[in-house]
Structures are given as structure tokens and as C-alpha cells.
Amino acid sequence: MLKPMATLAATGVVGLVLIKLVGLLLFPLLGVLIGFVVWALKLALIAALIWWGFHLFKRWNEKGSEA
Predict the structure, then answer these.
(1) How does pLDDT run along the chain (67 residues), one tens digit per residue?
(2) Angstrom distance (rounded) from CA 62 to CA 13
């Protein structure tokens, strides 16, 4: 009667330990992935702002030469 209960309990303990280990390994990887995504977005924002600045500068210079 107790043997199936012990097997079930051992399976639960092993599963809990595995979930904890996977969590310890995957949460830092998830943080690194999120960090790279934010870094890429930051670079894209900087590039877009530089492009927008050149576009405005070009447009302002064209308006100045017409007057």
C-alpha cells in the first residue's frame, strides 16, 4: 500500500527539484534575452533619431535656399 505512495512522492520531489534547477538556469537566460532586445530597440531608436535629425536639417536647408 505504501510503495505506490512512496513512488508518487519521490516523483513529486524529483519533479520539484528539476523545476527549481531549470528555473535557476532559464531565468538568467531570459534576462539576457530581454536585455539584448532592449539594447536592439535602443540602437534602433538612436538610429531613427539621427535619421530624423538629418532629415530635418536637410529640409530646413532647402527652405532657406528658396527664400
Answers:
(1) 668 888 999 999 999 999 999 989 888 999 999 999 999 999 999 999 999 999 999 988 887 666 5
(2) 73
| Cell 505506490 -> residue | 4
Look-up of cell digits 524529483: 14
Query: How far is it, in rounded angstroms, from Cα 29 to Cα 25?
Result: 7
* CA–CA dist 4, 30 (Å, integer): 37
Asked whether the whole model's pTM tops 0.85, one would answer no
